[in-house]
Amino acid sequence: MSQPLRAVLGEDQPIVREGIETILRRAGVDVVAAVGNAVDLVRAAGTHRPDVVITDIRMPPGLEDDGLRAAQEIRTARPETAVIVLSQFLDASYALDLVGDDPSGVGYLLKEKVASPQTLTDAVERVVARGSALDPDVISALLGRKRPTDPLAALTPKERAVLALMAEGHSNTGIADRLYVSVAAVERHVTGIFMKLELSQAASDRHRRVTAVLRYLGQ
């Protein structure tokens, strides 16, 4: 029998913390520590070495972006630890700061979406598997930014839709389900995306997906 996923949770509001912890435990996730400030979050992650860290952005001691900075510190110290940041407000710049130059093992969700247990548990599974889980509203906000040049100008609307779902962290099968097309059709669109973005065939498929997502996010 495989071991349950182990999580460290950071949230300064006790009621919200208990709610998230309940969702995780019901999904079979072992919450090894639940703390209320960013300092304890970093310490708990170092002590317990969890599979995933889930944290609010705004936490003590500064009540600004302390949770985000703690997540970045944890990610730097232990790249194998997946991180999910929860935000009450839609701020795409936070998502870009968290993603850095690699979206693998990273999630950014709006807090209101976590009211749906499946949203959180799906995100946990994706980031632990080294995928990403970026909130669709955040993706939309990133798309709306003005850029001096658009590296995606050559993509068709369908290819853009596929790339947007890739950025959210969905597999080809998941993309096919959401677009109501076959997996083979998605694979053709993905191949077209790689060709138009001039991503070398010598690189692994995973590397090319990561590079494509980073270009989509405007890195």
TrEMBL record:
GO MF: DNA binding
4-aspartylphosphate carried by residues: D56
Pfam families xrefs: GerE, Response_reg
Keywords tagged on the record: DNA-binding, Phosphoprotein, Transcription, Transcription regulation
InterPro entries assigned: CheY-like_superfamily, NreC/VraR/RcsB-like_REC, Sig_transdc_resp-reg_C-effctor, Sig_transdc_resp-reg_receiver, Tscrpt_reg_LuxR_C, WalR-like
Domain named HTH luxR-type: residues: 148-219
GO-annotated biological processes: phosphorelay signal transduction system; regulation of DNA-templated transcription
CDD domains assigned: LuxR_C_like, REC_NarL-like
Domain Response regulatory as annotated: residue spans: 6-128
Keyword Zinc-finger: no
Database matches in PANTHER family: TRANSCRIPTIONAL REGULATORY PROTEIN NARL-RELATED, TWO-COMPONENT RESPONSE REGULATOR
Protein name: DNA-binding response regulator
Species assigned in the record: Streptomyces griseoviridis
